[in-house]
Amino acid sequence: MPISTTSNYTTWLESLKAEIRSARVKASLAVNSELIRLYWRIGNEIVHQRAAQSWGSKVIEQLARDLKNEFPDLQGFSLSNLKYMARFAEAWPENPIGQQLVDQLPWGQNITLITQLHDRTTREWYIKKTIENGWSRSVLEMQIEGQAHVRFGVAQTNFVDTLPAPQSDLARDLLKDPYTFDFLGLLEPTNERTIEKALINHLKDFLIELGVGFAFVGSQYRLEVAGQECFIDLLFYHTRLHCYVVVELKNTAFKPEYTGQLNYYIAVMDDLVRDKVHDAPTIGLLLCKSKEQTIVEYALQGMNKPIGVSTYRTSPELPNELARLLPSIESLTEQLDATIIKMPPEEPD
Fold first, then answer.
1. 163-172: string of b/e by CB count within 10 Å (b at 16+)?
2. Cα 311 from Cα 254, distance rounded (Å)
C-alpha cells in the first residue's frame, strides 16, 4: 500500500498543512505590523522635522523624490503616501505599537480611519470591530458611512432578564438600531413581504448589515403546532452565540401585540427546532418602521423569551443640515402658485 494512502500519513499530512497555514498567517501579520511601525516612524519624523526645521510642505515632495531614487523597486513612498504617514503619526501622537491595535490593520484600512474619522475614541471603536469581525476596507468604509458606532448595542431588549450572563451582553452588543437597508432602493415599501423579498435578493448586503456571525436559514420558515401552521419571516443561526435568531418584519410603527407573536415563535422554535444540548436559547428580533421607547419597555416586561426591538429604514435620509436648507412643500407650492401664468377665460362665440 502506498504511504500516501495510509490513514497515519494522511492525518500527519493534514496536521502539517494546518501548521504551515497558521505560520503563513502569522508571518503575514508580522510583516504587516512591521510595515505599519515603519510608516508611523517615518510619519513621526516628518512631523517633528517640519516643526523643528520650519520646513514647509515642499519637504515632503523632496523626500518622495529622494526615497524613490534610493529605493526604485520599493512602493509606498509616493508623495500622497508620505502625507498619509504624517497624518497617521498625528492621529496617534504616542507610539501606537504595543498601546494600540492599529498595527494589526492593513495600511489601506488605517488610511480610511485617519481620513474619514476625526475622533480618537470613534477610531478605536472601529479598529476593535474591524479586528473582531474581519472587515475588509470596503466593509469598514460602509460601516463608517452608516455610523455603525452609534447603532450597535442600542436596540431595546429584555436580554438581561431572559438570558444568562455573558450571553445577554454578547447578544445585546450584536443588535443595532436602526438597521439601514438603503441597498434595497425601496422608497416606500407597500408591505412586509416586499421588504422581505428584497432583502433575500440582496442577501449579501443584508448579512453585512446584520453583522458577522449571522447565517441565513430561510424565509417564511414553516412551523406547525397542533395542526396549525405559522411562518417566520426570516430565520438565522448565529455562529458565535450558537443560537437561532427569529426576525420579524413590520412595515408599521411598533405595537405591543407584535412582541406576543414573536414570543410565541421563539417558544415553538425552542421546543421543536432547537437542539437543547448544543444550541443556546433562541433570540427574537422585531424590526419596525418606528417605535416609542416607553411602549416597547412596557411590552417587553411581560415577555419571558429574549426579544430585541429595533427600527429600520429602506432609503437614505438627508442630513439634518441639508434638510434645513431645502424649501418645504408649502413654500414650493406658494412659489409655484405665484409664477403660474393665469390663462384668460375663453370668450363666448
1. beeebbebbb
2. 9
User: How many angstroms separate the CA atoms of 206 and 232, rounded?
Assistant: 17
Contact 101, 131 (CB under 8 A): yes
Rounded Cα distance, 275 and 277, in Å: 5
Residue 192, SS3 per DSSP: helix
Listed by start position, the domains of the chain span 10-148, 156-320
Residue 346 pLDDT more than 50? no
At the topology level, CATH places domain 156-320 in Trna Endonuclease; Chain: A, domain 1 (3.40.1350)
pLDDT above 50 (res 339): no
Backbone angles phi, psi at 166, to 5 degrees: -90, 10
pLDDT single digits (tens) 190-207:
678 888 888 888 888 888
> What are the start-end ranges of the E strands in the chain?
156-157, 179-180, 214-225, 228-238, 243-249, 283-288, 307-313
Residues belonging to the chain: 349
Q: Which of the four pLDDT bands, split at 50, 70 and 90, describes residue 273?
A: very high
pLDDT digits (tens, 9 = 90+) for 107-154: 899 999 999 998 888 998 899 888 887 888 888 888 898 888 888 888
Task: Calculate the average pLDDT of the chain.
Answer: 81
Contacts 24+ apart (CB under 8 A), 217-225: 217/244, 220/196, 223/265, 223/268, 223/269, 223/272, 223/273, 225/268, 225/272
